[in-house]
Write a sequence for this structure.
């Protein structure tokens, strides 16, 4: 497989309508098209896979905390406050699709030069790249609406430098047609893809066909607010398609892009093998969501979030120092009290390890500014007596060290290499203790679409068609699939405290438990009233939406889109209520990202201006809040419920 080789082709000229950051890409891809007219399409396909990244670093660093908070399904590490409406710079979601589209255009140009026999051999690679391009195109339209696509990235092959913006509606129609063409190619006996040249599906054309067919459901659910009849027709066609849809864990689009780190060019190839090299710490679990998952014995909480740093040794360290520990942690601790008044940890109570290590960040308004001590364990830097009451010190009384009480988004599920199991264990050691173990670089396994997602969409459409029996079948299957998929992803990514990462269990050997999915856990979860497919029709539909968002926990854009189109979590829910803030009412929460200012020298100025005008969008500065972001909706969002209003059905 050539996925770890840089195979650049005629990707010059690119899109001059992109942001300044994109211009740097042109230098990288500025290769003479005539130099590769006899190139290998399979090599270009490998480059398309390398470029395929729906949610790269800047999405998590800049945008994820905003999206989780706007959706009501997560928190920024800075807490709930005015910052909810403070936009950071836009990440690179608006132009990620161009990275694959450039390569696809080079592939299409090369493909057109082949004779018919050659075309049959190479068509599978072209259609595979097309599926990935469509996938990324959806993400581009989710927050920005119309984008240049049909005429885009063709300048090197006789096309225009000023491509028109295509409406979301026209793109959905185009992509549905193209996906049908992809399915036809993947199911043709004349088309082949070599397994060694395909890390996505291993040359399995049937799997590619299911992927393309299931991807149509992503479009269908985004159409529901505008054209529910057409959306239902798409879903029905997916369900009945002879190629099938993603319905087992083996159908999941889950793969790694490479194995061995290369020398040189660290910022390109290696950062695709390991996803990326930068860190991010801004996303944490909220109390409502993590409590919901723990209370209902959802094992996925252990894959989506990290254990907090309060293992039994840390607790004993506080007891030995004569310090109090957080009451919400101590309620799960069985201890004895000696004659000297000091406590001794005996064992965990309640649900026991690993469950007792998962807590969310408080969602109370401006808790991060409180200096009374009410929220001291969440924001210790605000507490005047933190050094004496909240931190442990070494034997010399120096080196104050605090321990995080809440769970953060699990970086190891999102990034390879940088975040090791050792670093998580080392952070949960006493000031005078050291504990290290050897870890290797971890190529990242990414999950791009799953059978669980597909089944949840089908459950949603079944409920919208008032077929509750069918909806239950899909819903129950989806939750089991989701648990198994994320268990596999945690194992593949060697997440801290997975049983096969043996070094994690040497420090708190007696009390540390693994996070692996255990026998019977899925059944136990499904017995919970809030997870079982029971209740009124409205409650069943709500449960589907909640599970869609939980299944998307590691994917901020999908969480945001699902919350926006569904109106869940609802402020008035009896299942998973959304936290309400009078300071940030629903009608002030953004539903899209800013357009960004248009430069006077931009050759696309007129086209961009007209495109935004046609959509009814005010041009506003990137990275700055404006109320129009909450009131001016993108086409696919028009008619959807307000934030937290619940379904209109």
């Amino acid at each position: 497989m050539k996925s770890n080789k840089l195979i650049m082709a005629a990707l010059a000229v690119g899109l001059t309508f992109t942001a300044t950051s994109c211009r740097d890409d042109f230098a990288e891809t500025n290769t003479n098209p005539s130099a590769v007219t006899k190139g290998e399409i399979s090599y270009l396909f490998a480059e398309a896979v390398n470029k395929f990244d729906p949610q790269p670093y800047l999405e998590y660093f800049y945008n994820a905390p905003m999206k989780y908070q706007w959706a009501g399904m997560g928190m920024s590490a800075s807490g709930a406050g005015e910052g909810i409406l403070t936009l950071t710079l836009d990440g690179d979601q608006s132009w990620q699709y161009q990275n694959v589209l450039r390569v696809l255009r080079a592939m299409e140009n090369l493909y057109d030069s082949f004779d018919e026999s050659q075309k049959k051999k190479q068509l599978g690679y072209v259609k595979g790249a097309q599926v990935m391009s469509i996938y990324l195109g959806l993400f581009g339209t989710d927050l920005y609406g119309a984008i240049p696509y049909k005429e885009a990235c063709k300048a090197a092959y006789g096309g225009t430098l000023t491509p028109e913006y295509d409406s979301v509606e026209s793109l959905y129609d185009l992509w549905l047609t193209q996906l049908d063409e992809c399915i036809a190619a993947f199911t043709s006996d004349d088309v082949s893809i070599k397994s060694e040249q395909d890390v996505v599906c291993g040359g399995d054309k049937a799997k590619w066909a299911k992927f393309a067919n299931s991807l149509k459901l992503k479009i269908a659910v985004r159409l529901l607010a505008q054209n529910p009849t057409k959306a239902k027709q798409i879903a029905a066609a997916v369900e009945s398609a002879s190629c099938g849809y993603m319905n087992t864990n083996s159908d999941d689009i889950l793969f790694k892009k490479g194995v061995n780190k290369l020398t040189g060019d660290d910022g390109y190839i290696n950062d695709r093998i390991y996803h990326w090299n930068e860190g991010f710490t801004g996303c944490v679990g909220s109390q409502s969501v993590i409590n919901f998952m723990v209370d209902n014995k959802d094992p996925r909480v252990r894959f989506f979030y990290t254990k907090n740093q309060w293992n039994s040794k840390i607790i004993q360290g506080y007891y030995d120092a004569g310090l109090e520990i957080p009451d919400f942690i101590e309620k799960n601790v069985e201890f004895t009290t000696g004659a000297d008044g000091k406590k001794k940890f005996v064992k965990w109570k309640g649900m026991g390890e690993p469950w007792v290590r998962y807590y969310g960040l408080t969602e109370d308004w401006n808790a991060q500014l409180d200096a009374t001590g009410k929220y001291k364990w969440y924001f210790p830097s605000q507490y005047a007596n933190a050094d004496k009451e909240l931190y442990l010190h070494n034997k010399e009384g120096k080196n104050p060290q605090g321990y995080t009480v809440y769970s953060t988004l699990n970086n190891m599920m999102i990034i390879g290499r940088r975040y090791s199991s050792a670093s998580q264990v080392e952070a949960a050691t006493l000031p005078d203790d050291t504990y290290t173990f050897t870890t290797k670089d971890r190529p990242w396994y990414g999950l791009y679409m799953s059978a669980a997602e597909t089944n949840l969409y089908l459950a949603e459409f079944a409920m919208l068609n008032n077929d509750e029996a069918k909806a239950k079948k899909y819903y129950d299957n989806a939750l089991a699939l989701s648990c198994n998929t994320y268990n596999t992803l945690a194992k593949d990514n060697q997440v801290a405290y997975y049983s096969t990462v043996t070094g994690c269990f040497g420090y708190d050997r007696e009390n540390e438990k693994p996070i692996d999915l255990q026998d019977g856990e899925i059944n136990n979860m499904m017995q919970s009233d809030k997870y079982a497919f029971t209740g009124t029709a409205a409650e069943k539909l709500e449960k589907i939406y909640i599970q869609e968002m939980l299944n998307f926990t590691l994917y901020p854009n999908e969480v945001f889109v699902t919350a926006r189109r569904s109106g869940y979590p609802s402020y008035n829910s009896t299942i998973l209520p959304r936290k309400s803030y009078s300071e940030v009412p629903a009608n002030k929460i953004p539903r899209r990202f800013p357009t960004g200012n248009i430069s006077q020298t931009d050759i696309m100025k007129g086209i961009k201006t007209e495109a935004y005008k046609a959509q009814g969008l005010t041009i506003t500065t990137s990275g700055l809040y404006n109320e129009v972001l909450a009131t001016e909706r993108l086409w696919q969002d028009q008619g959807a419920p307000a934030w937290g209003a619940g379904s209109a059905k």
Q: What stands out?
A: Residues 116-144 form the longest helix (29 residues). Confidence is low (pLDDT under 50) at residues 1-37.
